[in-house]
Amino acid sequence: MQKFNIPHNWELRSIIEFYAKWIREGKLKVNSDWNVENIKFTVQDPCKLVRQSLGDWIAEELRFVVKAVVGEENFVDMVPNKSNNYCCGGGGGFLQNPYVEQRLAFGKIKFDQIMETGARYVIAPCHNCHSQIMELAEHYGGGFKVTHLWTLICLSLGILDENERLYLGDDLKECNLPAKKR
Amino acid sequence: MTAEAIHLEEQVARFKERVQGLLPDGGNLDMCLTCGTCSGGCPASGLEGMDPRKFLRMVALGLDEEVLSTPWVWMCTQCERCMHACPMKINIPRLVYEARSNWPRDQRPRGIRESCDFHVQRGGAMGIPKEDWIFVVEDVLEEVRQNQPGWEKLQAPIDKKGTGYYLNQNSREPVTEPEEMVPLWKILHLAGVDWTYSSEMWGGENYCMFLGDDDAWAKIVATQSRIIDDLGCHTFIETE
Asked: Using CA atoms in the order B118, B119, B125, B126, what is the torsion angle rounded to 10 degrees?
């Protein structure tokens, strides 16, 4: 908006900020009771959201939400992280251009970072990150899954239907399902 | 092996001068300490024999032909890790953007170009028509209301005036995995948020920016901005 000097009467906010706010306000009564197996999670810092736009405070809010949902002890951060985190290689149109081999080579550093955490799930709050990291897991044989944040919030709240679990592994396909149909 | 020397007196760094003219403080393009911190943290280092420091040095030396033809600019994601780490805060990503913009439009990667064109024409990068977007949202909502106990009053409004909150939607879900839209709707419902999508320019992505197409990028942003204002929303919630 600044770049093109377009006048407007609204303000832009990230959904991550609202997730954190609604959890603090008690509107989203999340907890990590469902994670009895202590499944480990890590999180990707989307470049557009963190380094390029809002900075480390939104990365902190992201971690607040993740920890509230999966359990503080079940969150393992990547190194480096937040504004210093590495790009996954899914952005900038890389997923839409023909340089696949180079994109996978680019992503090897992200793959290694994730493997270092030992996490079974990567939370990717950006669709490009989501697609790229899934492809990295498949290509390099990582065995980890990539999921959206809204999936885990709803899982924690016991409101995630069985057909809303596309990106969950078998370990969570039946975890905390809502009451069956009447 | 000895590389042939570059004769600097023959070079005019036209590309550098042009980008300098576009940026506050000239993008600090002359302030490189050649330390290599940029390249050290760049996952694109080494691709096409290029890295951010090398790219910047080539720009500074006026090797415009090489700079403006290397496909490396499509392998740099403009993630800004280099600029973040740079002690002189040199805007290398903007150099990459301008180099992309310099490619003839029809020679830029087709996938990015099509995503951009779809977005401008139809409101989302996957190119589904407006009617299909509306149908998918209504269809998925109806199914949840009927089949999931407790969600009979779930909302997913499009073009609802005066809600306060406007949401974008990445176009992947309605096209390939519509049920993945539902968890966010449920969260908004529990939070008591009155919100709306729009029927036009609803996509959450923006490939025109990645295409290096200023005009198309501006068109998307300006159209979406006007829609949000017309709907009377005070807040645009970016969903990713």
From this structure: -50
